[in-house]
Amino acid sequence: MLLAIDTASRFLSLALHDGNQILFESSWYTANNHTIELSPAIRQAIKQAQFRPADLTAVAVSQGPGSFTGLRIGLSVAKGLAAAAGLVLVAVPTLDILAASVPALGGSLIAVLLAGRGRICAQHYTWQGTSWVAQGQADIVSWEKLVQSIDHETLIVGEVDEPGRELLTANSGLVHLLPGTHNLRRAGFLAEIAWGRIRNGSTDDPASVTPIYLHQPGVPHP
After folding, report:
1. What are phi and psi of 164, to 5 degrees?
2. Sheet bearing 22-29, strands edge to edge
């Protein structure tokens, strides 16, 4: 049984996945109460799915980018569980979780995450074979700069605030916003990615895995 944990933003998500199907999933908004809410939510998830902590064999976690505090909390809990119980650990880039929710539509995709101060974290993807594959590195940009960079039809998925929606909608000839159901990061997709990596033997060392942080221009690292 794999437990998936996503605390990369103010939207938290948990899932339990047995390798074939999701047996529990919950996503909710938290006002920066990650520390208070996460551990009780994990206990409740395991109880509600009628499993025991001893049934867990793996844990997956959103690695970032995202909130500095949220990422630290999620990674700490995941690494602690992995080390204490000998669980397999898989850390997955946050924006890959969003991309995984988008159907095989082909073309280009940009996954976005609000980064504060009118900026977003954006990652470009192209459809290759059976999945979306990241192109280059994620970057922190303004909505204006992102829109200016789009020169062909592109899907947008993720956190879009009202200023961003207005700019993207004004460029509807090239930009296609996905429905809200895709814009919520779901731990079920994190779990699916993690199981694929486990089957391929690509897991992480709990002692060495670290969050992926992106630095906003002019904003110091806390």
Report:
1. -65, -40
2. 22-29, 11-17, 2-6, 58-64, 88-93
Every domain of the chain and the residues it spans: 2-93+185-199, 102-183
Compute the chain's Rg from CA coordinates.
17
Contact between 38 and 5 under an 8 Å Cβ cutoff? The reply is yes
pTM metric for this prediction: 0.92
The residues that bridge with 173 in the sheet, in sequence order, are none
Q: Class of the 2-93+185-199 domain?
A: alpha beta
DSSP 8-state class, residue 50: T
**In this structure, CATH architecture of domain 102-183:** 2-Layer Sandwich (3.30)
Q: Give the pLDDT of the chain (222 residues) as one tens digit per residue.
A: 999 999 999 899 999 999 999 999 999 998 888 989 999 999 999 999 999 999 999 999 999 999 999 999 999 999 999 999 999 999 999 999 999 999 877 789 999 999 988 899 999 999 998 899 999 999 999 999 999 999 999 999 999 999 999 999 898 789 999 888 888 999 999 999 999 999 999 999 999 999 998 864 443 333
Do the domains at 2-93+185-199 and 102-183 have one common CATH topology? yes
Place of tokens 């609000």: 114
Annotate 85-108 with three-state secondary structure. HCCEEEEEEHHHHHHHCCCCCCCE
Beta-carbon neighbour count of residue 79 at 10 Å?
22
